[in-house]
Design brief:
The chain is α+β, with helices and mostly antiparallel strands. It contains 7 helices and 22 strands. The protein has helices at residues 46-63, 79-82, 125-137, 167-173, 189-194, 202-205, 225-241; strands spanning 2-9, 16-24, 34-38, 71-74, 85-86, 89-90, 94-95, 100-101, 142-149, 151-152, 155-159, 177-181, 211-219, 259-262, 266-267, 275-279, 286-287, 292-297, 306-310, 315-320, 325-326, 333-337. A hairpin with an 8-residue loop joins strand 18 and strand 19 (306-310). Keywords: Hydrolase, Metal-binding, Zinc.
Length: 351
């Protein structure tokens, strides 16, 4: 394994940001290659500890000559967000200098060619970071962006062009749900990883071997050794299933039996009032139409001081907020409905 350091220039003299890149060389030039990164939203750490648990498995495979395709790993992809604290609270989702989500604004290239990347000479540090991460990942057959939600089940975002071809990956990773999307106007990292292949010849796109997904590893507090080991095993199974690593001891993944739904089926349930949220449901619950999901206490102790929120359709509770204080209009949860939501959102579900 080779370790190198990437440096991103800051926007004033004497300021720069660093992050390590770990690389394994493959022994078979024809084998698929893989790129894994974690914590693009710098405070989302389940993927960080999963990569930590994966590394000894890859080191063993390397020692035994079983790494067939090249593997590039960025265990903590956002040194800028990692350093951001405001009044003692970590702020890793948005760049404080530009107020832009770290997982928005990636260049959406017309083809998988690094020569098409924009000139970042006069760019902001977060734009430089995004350009470099995309440059590191472009050209790999497998691109995994490891995130987590507030509280939730493990699930994947997958472009419709890769489904159901990626069903083996979902099964290998042991996730509970897959959300399918087909439009990216915001420039997510996943969108920047798959959109360049949408209008190129089939022999370049190679959708039969291509993997690009945002992995949501449960909730932000699920930074746990046992879960990390399980998630690492899922990543390893995917790499083996797709031929990046050879391991005859592992069986081929079975059929994916989890929930599969388009983004348009998601009900986010905006809060009608601000206040304290008392949930009646948790991630993994299946609910019927009309079931009570939560109560919002907006005027405690007063008559009519709370409002109830009910399910607009039947479905699966995928996520909910980790904080119990909410403002009017903020989303309460993700309900994966059995049909299209009356409040369907195109593109990204959240800011």
């Amino acid at each position: 394994m080779h370790r190198s350091i990437e440096r991103i220039a800051g926007d004033s003299e004497g300021v720069s940001y660093e992050f390590p890149v770990l690389r394994f060389e493959g022994t078979d030039k024809a084998a698929p290659s893989a790129y894994l990164q974690a914590a693009l939203h710098a405070g989302e750490l389940p993927g960080v500890v999963a990569i930590d648990a994966l590394m000894p498995m890859l080191a063993r495979a390397e020692a035994e000559g079983r790494i067939m395709g090249a593997i590039t790993i960025v265990p903590w992809a956002n040194p800028i967000g990692r350093a951001q604290y405001h009044f003692g609270e970590h702020q890793g989702r948005f760049h404080l200098g530009t107020r832009t989500n770290f997982n928005r604004g990636f260049p959406l290239l017309a083809a998988p060619d690094t020569a098409l990347l924009p000139d970042t000479t006069l760019a902001t540090p977060d734009q430089r970071l995004k350009s470099r991460l995309l440059q590191l990942s472009l050209g790999h057959d497998i691109v995994l962006d490891l995130h987590c939600d507030d509280e939730g089940l493990p699930y994947l975002y997958i472009h419709t062009s890769l489904w159901p071809a990626m069903a083996d990956c979902a099964a290998a990773m042991g996730v509970d749900a897959v959300l399918l999307w087909n439009e990216d106007t915001d420039g997510t990292f996943e969108g920047a990883s798959i959109m360049p292949y949408q209008n190129v010849p089939a022999e370049v796109a190679r959708f039969d071997r291509r993997v690009a997904t945002t992995v949501e590893y449960r909730g932000i507090l699920d930074v746990d050794g046992e879960l990390a080991a399980s998630d690492a095993e899922g990543l390893y199974r995917l790499l083996v299933a797709r031929g990046v690593v050879a391991d005859p001891a592992l069986a081929t993944p079975g059929a994916f039996t989890g929930t599969v739904a388009p983004l348009e089926n998601i009900d986010m349930m905006p809060a009608p009032k601000g206040g304290a949220v008392v949930y009646d449901v948790k991630p993994g619950d299946r609910v019927a139409k009309g079931a009570r999901l939560a109560k919002i206490v907006h005027a405690p102790g007063e008559t009519g001081g709370s409002m109830e929120v009910f399910a607009p359709q039947a479905g699966l509770i995928l996520t909910r907020r980790s904080r119990r204080i909410i403002r009017a209009g903020e989303d309460l949860l993700k309900l994966v409905g059995d049909k299209r939501s009356d409040d369907a959102r195109s593109g990204t579900l959240e800011d």
